[in-house]
Amino acid sequence: MNFFDKLMKIDRRIIFLFVAAAVILPFFLSIHQKILISPEVQGLYDAFESLPPGSKVMISYDYDPASAPELQPMAVAAMKYCFAKGLKVIILGLWPQGSIQANMAIESALEDSMVKEKNPQYGKDWVNLGYMSGNELVIQRMGTDIPVTFPRDYQGNPVEDLPLMQGIKNFSNVDFIFNLSAGYPGTQEWVQFAADRFHAKLGAGNTAVQAPGMYPYLRAGQLVGLLGGMKGASEFEKLTDFEGKGTKFMLSQSFAHSIIIIFIIIGNLAYFISRGVKKK
Amino acid sequence: MRREIPLILTATVGIVYIISFFIPHRPFGSVETLFSDWILIIAAFAIWLGALNLLRVSADKIYRKKKDWFYALVTILSFFLIAIIGFFFSRGSHFQDVGTSFDYLYRNVYNPLSATMFAILAFFVASASYRAFRARSWEATLLLLAAFFVMLGRVPIGDMISGFLPENIRLSEVATFIMNIPQSAGQRAIMIGIGLGIISTALRLILGIERTYLGGD
Amino acid sequence: METFGLWIAALLTLGIMSFLYKDNPVYKLCESIFIGISAGYWFVSLFWQSMYPRLYLNIRGAVSTLLHEGRISDDRWLYLVAGILGVMMLLRLVPKIGWISRWPLSFIVGSTAGLYFITYLQSNIMNQIRSTIIPIYVPGNLGISISNLIVFVGVFCGLVYFFFSREHKGAFGGAAKVGIWFLMITFGASFGFTVMSRMSLLIGRIDFLFGTWLGLIK
Amino acid sequence: MRIVRAMSKRNKRINWNLVLLLFIFSLFILSPAFAQEDTLPPSPPTDVMAKDTPNDAGGSITITWKKSADDGAGKNNVTGYLIYRSEEGDRGYKEIGQVAKGSKEFTDGNTKDKINYYYKIKAVNKSGLFSFSEPSPPATSKAQWFSSGRKNTLIAALILGGLILYFISQARAGKELFIRKIAGLDAVDDAVGRATEMGKKILYIPGTQDMDNVQTIAGVTILSRVAKITAEYETPLEVPVSRSLVMVTCREVVKEAYASAGRPDAFKENMVHYLTDDQFGYAAGVDGLILREKPATIFYQGAFYAESLIMAETGNSIGAIQIAGTAMPAQIPFFFASCDYTLIGEELFAASAYLSKEPKLLGSLKGQDIGKAIILLMLTAGILFITTGLWRGFDSLFIVQ
């Protein structure tokens, strides 16, 4: 077995080591990267921008801490943006841990100076309806009656006591829905039920792995915009002018991608050379 | 009794479900909600079976002093720890609120385990792509190239490398093109296929042609 | 207490990661904790989130209407059926009448079949057909014309690949082959797109270890 | 947004006197414009119509109107509309909701059926001035017995369902049906055989979702065929599952398979066992099983999420033969990269027919194929119609409401 054969069957732990190094090193480096905006992110931002202050935005947190590195930066940027712009936010979660993630996002958002100035109030500027089990059927039920689906918020207050929830009956009283999703139930269900059945205007933030599956919906106009993974988060941060972790982590991301690409190239070189050697 | 009633039940429920999609009038319009609630309740009962099985298999390991019996004991203890805390010491149905003992376990035990298990995928993605993305054939080359362009195009570094090119053929644009056009087309073909497969399977289930799930008599 | 929790979290994180080197006692320990804790987690969650609000609260509500208003007609009584189906499921533990658990099972399978039939017909067939019907010649815009044509060819040939009842030969086989090419590009692109997501998760964990735990990065 | 932020960041050393002077001066110049905006209400919305919301269970009325002339045009200062409702027509109007500017529609989902309702729309402008529209003619809500917007779905369901049923009956009547090769399924026998030779286990993962997923049901069906083979070869089989209902079902299925292979004695309850409902907890457990038991063959058939690659890469690292199948589009590439064979999407649902060669199952595959042919025809025709302009609305035939 020659060197290239060995290289082709390299112990995967060596690859692991390089990946770890590529992710860790950039944390201690400061290199500035230029971020370009992709059309699907622009689409989402435009949809947000078209909302006048006071509009009602529903944000569904359909993920858990496992996907937080990707989705939390989006959530934080969206919350900061909504608060700073005076949009009213209705939060809910189709995943049990979703509403906890929402509270964490709001905590970070409230630290921003722009948001502090606006001093958003619970009940008036945002509400957290909490988690409701039932997956896509929760969406469907909301299509006919939101207060019946969520009779109380996450703290147990009746929704009729919350000023923001006044006059909210179903999706037609909500101006925009933004769904942060890491799987099922998630964007696909929001498209099928909220957008298809009840014609709600829908945008989404997805883990990068979910995102490719959503392009058909994007092209069909069932989704107005889409943030895919950390890159999507960093682009959205750039558009809204609220730089956060998405931008910060992007460097590790670039390094890690490069290392994988380098390995793929090495693998192919080794493959061709060792095949060439054998032919001789 | 053992097979007929279940088959009739499947057929009836399936047909009612389908019909209710076309009839907004009560009671059909609300059938979906009701049935879905029922399924959730049944699943909540069923998890007792799973939990009992896990405990029984683990206890069996300890009892017979099988290899690694110690770890089985750890599993049993962890299960009871969180179950007891969740049922009795965490504000009842508000067990997930911040500050409960359940939440403490969730944040410091469950969540790091879950997030790390998810995160080691980063390493597996690297080793899988090293092995799988080799230009062995024309098909494999397409796979490789698509992965290559999308991977680079999705991070800012891709645009740094291809910065000298005109804007509309830079790597991020190429990646967007691949995702939007051929990827989207392939995805759609898969989706339509899946749609047909599911429709036909659903139909076979409703009509009782596919009844393997019921087991034997 | 918080610091203690942080240390536990960090050690568990390292324990799971040790598995990348090879299977070892620390990983085994973390794995068995994980199985026990997560099984218990769902056990508790399903109780408080499904059984309690959907079954107990509904039935309690129906009983109180009966007691206070003397009315028996209350939709919530319907949830009793679910309770009965649930108990039937548990009867699996009694070998002699275990077969009765097929009733709730076939209820679930039936409603799943019905729901999937409709949902997939709508979103995977009707909607996808509609969004594929796009003009393949847009006057004055060559780029879009070509893109639309590629989408059409891709969907067409991709579907041909999925034909089961015909041998993939001749022109038909040619189309199926082009279909495979599209599938390959789809897989490669989805894979490449995913790499990003996976790396993000690792970055999140590293951020936890070096930032939250060790405080080396702010 | 960005401007505000830029301003707040700007240097604070400004000549305030000058600013004040300029401000007052500009007020003088602009005052006529301001005055006009401040004193005049926006022009009212017109043509307010209300009618029963179609295709619902009643309890809802849809109101439409023509925008105020000052919304998006004219003075362009309308900020939104408030919707008022009354049961009397001339008085007793109460606010029931509001919508943003540019809106022309509102759904009142809080009506009682068979009661007359009247609606008025109030346009509000920036300075808080408003004007009311004329009231709408009365409207009542009622429930419908058929969703007219879903006629097309009904037709599609009848066509596709009919085709599948027709070919099933054809197949039952004894018509020979061809089925093309599916590499992954041809390999099942070999894969089981190899495990037998090596004296090692076979691991079968029926996805990680519950019985309320059709993919899980497909996975369980394939398990029944695999279990029949392992029973014949006397190969040890282990099925770790992540849902209790799946455990119950798989147990029945495996038991039945062993019985029908004439080996009921070889069946053990614990062949099928539950780990945890948790996605990654389950993956951790399965990884442990793979590393310690070193199975020769691993099947992954059903619905998967991110855990797919964790298990498949670990399986790959011990050199097991892996056969995967899923209809989760996002996971197919991972199985493709780390398994020996992968059933792609629809192939998962074709597997039970392929493995059993039962005529009625094969018939349904034929039905699916004809369905595909019709879809291809629709696509081609539709694109021709829409490109040539012969029938521009063709694609809207497929809109489901």
Write structural notes for this entry.
The complex is a heterotetramer of chains A (280), B (217), C (218) and D (401). Chain A is built from twelve helices and six strands. In chain A, strands 3-2-1-4-5-6 form a six-stranded parallel beta sheet, sandwiched between helices. Chain A starts with a helix and ends with a helix. The mean pLDDT of chain A is 89. Chain A has helices at 3-8, 12-24, 39-49, 68-85, 98-110, 113-118, 136-144, 146-149, 187-198, 211-219, 229-240, 245-279, and strands at 56-62, 88-93, 126-131, 176-181, 202-206, 226-228. Among the domains of chain B are: 4-81, no CATH class; 135-205, no CATH class. Helices cover 74% and strands 0% of the residues of chain B. Chain B contains eight helices and no strands. Chain B has helices at 4-22, 31-63, 69-88, 101-119, 121-132, 138-153, 156-161, 171-206. The N and C termini of chain B lie close together (10 Å). The mean pLDDT of chain B is 90. Chain C has a domain at 134-218. Chain C is built from six helices and no strands. The radius of gyration of chain C is 28 Å and the shape is extended. Chain D has 401 residues and is α/β, with parallel strands linked by helices. Chain D has four domains: 2-31, no CATH class; 46-132, Immunoglobulin-like; 148-170 and 361-398, no CATH class; 180-356, Rossmann fold (3-Layer(aba) Sandwich). Chain D is 45% helix and 18% strand. In chain D, the strands form three sheets. Chain D has a six-stranded parallel beta sheet with strand order 10-9-8-11-12-13, sandwiched between helices. At the B-C interface, helix 1, helix 2, helix 3, helix 4 and helix 5 of B face helix 1, helix 2, helix 3, helix 4 and helix 5 of C.
Give me a quick take on this structure.
With 280 residues, chain A is α/β, with parallel strands linked by helices.
Write the layout of secondary structure elements.
The complex is a heterotetramer of chains A (280), B (217), C (218) and D (401).
Chain A: H1 3-8, H2 12-24, H3 39-49, E1 56-62, H4 68-85, E2 88-93, H5 98-110, H6 113-118, E3 126-131, H7 136-144, H8 146-149, E4 176-181, H9 187-198, E5 202-206, H10 211-219, E6 226-228, H11 229-240, H12 245-279
Parallel strand pairs in A: 1-2, 1-4, 2-3, 4-5, 5-6
Helix pairs in contact in A: 2-12, 4-5, 4-11, 7-9, 11-12
Chain C: H1 2-17, H2 25-69, H3 79-90, H4 102-132, H5 142-161, H6 170-213
Helix pairs in contact in C: 1-2, 1-6, 2-3, 3-4, 5-6
Chain D: H1 2-9, H2 16-39, E1 46-52, E2 61-66, E3 78-86, E4 94-100, E5 105-108, E6 118-125, E7 130-132, H3 151-172, H4 183-198, E8 202-205, H5 214-233, E9 237-241, H6 244-260, E10 272-274, H7 279-293, E11 297-301, H8 307-317, E12 321-326, H9 332-338, E13 341-344, H10 346-356, H11 359-388
Parallel strand pairs in D: 8-9, 8-11, 9-10, 11-12, 12-13
Antiparallel strand pairs in D: 1-2, 2-5, 3-4, 3-6, 6-7
Helix pairs in contact in D: 3-11, 4-5, 5-6, 5-10, 7-8, 10-11
